[in-house]
């Protein structure tokens, strides 16, 4: 049975690659390692998000992405 991470961080984004990069870098540099990340792309460009996440090679298996077709309000995303 797969162990569930102790902490899940949800990061919402839409066409702001620099801010997404900064957020992911901050999370992945923490000393606490029992985490995973869910990135919610709130109607933004899919290719740029996937390309950016691919740069986090060591942590890639701990990052999931949900691409929403249309942009929604913050609470929905």
Low-confidence blocks of residues: none
* Structural class by secondary-structure content: alpha/beta
Strand order within the widest beta sheet: 1-2-3
Secondary structure tally, helices? 2
**So what's the overall shape?**
globular
**For this entry, what is the oligomeric state of its chains?**
single chain
H/E topology pattern: EHEHE
Compute the number of strand runs: 3
**Hey, roughly how much beta strand do the residues contain?**
25-35%
For the largest beta-sheet, the strand count, sense and barrel status come to: 3 strands, parallel
Radius of gyration, taken over Cα atoms and rounded to an integer in Å = 12 Å
Report the helical percentage.
Answer: 25-40%
From the N-terminal CA to the C-terminal CA, the straight-line distance is 29 Å
Which whole number gives the mean pLDDT?
93
Structure, explained:
The protein is α/β, with parallel strands linked by helices and 77 residues long. It has helices spanning 17-28, 46-54; strands at residues 7-13, 35-42, 63-68. It has a three-stranded parallel β-sheet, covered by helices on one side. Helix 2 (46-54) links the parallel strand 2 and strand 3. Helix 1 (17-28) runs parallel beside helix 2. The protein starts with 6 loop residues before the first strand and ends in a 9-residue tail after the last strand. The model has no long low-confidence stretch (mean pLDDT 93).
